[in-house]
Write a structure and sequence with these properties.
Layout: H1 2-7, H2 14-38, H3 47-65, H4 70-81, H5 92-95, H6 103-110, H7 112-121, H8 128-136, H9 157-172, H10 183-192, H11 200-210, E1 218-221, E2 225-231, E3 241-247, E4 252-260, E5 270-273
Antiparallel strand pairs: 1-2, 1-5, 2-3, 3-4
Length: 288
């Protein structure tokens, strides 16, 4: 409903977004792993809505790991949820174009930030932190971002946080024009971008709080089994709680078994992250 209100040129119901932000914040406290797992249940047709929700979740995870709490935490989650709200005013043929955007199309795509800021300015009482997130999530440390080419010292902490979680979700999502990276690959790629684009300390903080093998990712174990990470182990990343679903030696699915790798030697630790599609597996099948 919020998305539709903006698309039709109406102001959206701030109370509704406050409720969403509060629900996300509460869920992070009660079960962060479950919420992160749900982020893996994606649909290409619902990308904008799911991306908004996922970035809000990731912002909450990152902020809580930095000891942010109370009203500030909820304001950051609120801002993350509406960070891309301006995209509903971008023509769908540009937003979902499978090929490379032409110069004029790319310029229009970039205007989604301006559209978003304009929409938020029309809402009474929007927190300044939320405005920063919307306005700055595409700014980059070397000044090559948009819309204002802000340099490192001009980008707020909240803008930098938004850039990190926005990029992480964007590159791990399947889109009409590219297949998403597995989380482990995405985090390594983001570290490569820290010298010029992303705040290195915040990328490392994201890795610490979601783990190299986050909940919802598929991994290969030393024993030759494929498993779904159910609960990340932030202290011992290669030994999370997993659901074993596939045997590489037999090339077959197996009876599902929940295992804490930290408390058993039967399966060894994680050998590598894997693409479940290569084994005919769908993460969604194991997240009910």
């Amino acid at each position: 409903d919020v998305m539709q209100d903006i698309k039709m040129g109406r102001s959206f119901d701030r109370a509704a977004v406050d409720m969403i932000a509060a629900d996300i914040t509460d869920s992070l406290v009660s079960n962060q792993n479950a919420l992160q797992s749900l982020m893996r249940m994606r649909s290409k047709d619902q990308y904008l809505l799911e991306h908004s929700m996922n970035v809000a979740v990731l912002m909450g995870v990152l902020a809580r790991s930095m000891k942010v709490e109370g009203d500030e935490l909820q304001e950051l989650v609120f801002g993350a949820f509406v960070h891309d709200i301006g995209k509903v005013r971008v023509a769908e043929e540009i937003l979902y174009k499978p090929g490379r955007l032409e110069a004029e199309e790319w310029a229009e795509m970039q205007r989604h930030v301006t559209y978003g800021v304009e929409s938020l300015k029309g809402i009474v009482g929007i927190p300044s932190r939320a405005m920063d997130i919307c306005a700055q999530h595409h700014e980059r440390l070397d000044g090559t971002g948009y819309p204002n080419n802000l340099a490192a010292d001009q980008i707020s902490l909240h803008g930098r946080m938004a850039a990190v979680v926005d990029v992480y979700d964007a590159i791990t999502a399947d889109r009409v024009y590219h297949q998403g990276m597995e989380p482990t690959v995405a985090l390594k790629k983001m570290l490569e971008w820290t010298d010029s684009h992303l705040d290195k300390s915040l990328v490392y903080q994201l890795i610490r709080c979601v783990s190299v093998y986050p909940a919802g990712s598929m991994v290969e174990l030393a024993s030759g089994h494929i498993a779904l990470v159910q609960e990340a182990n932030l202290h011992k990343p290669s030994q999370p709680k997993v659901l074993i679903v596939y045997d590489l030696k037999r090339n077959a699915k197996v009876a599902e078994q929940q295992v804490s790798l930290e408390h058993t030697d039967l399966y060894g630790g994680i050998k590598a992250a894997v693409d479940p599609q290569k084994f005919g597996l769908n993460v969604r099948d194991y997240l009910s």
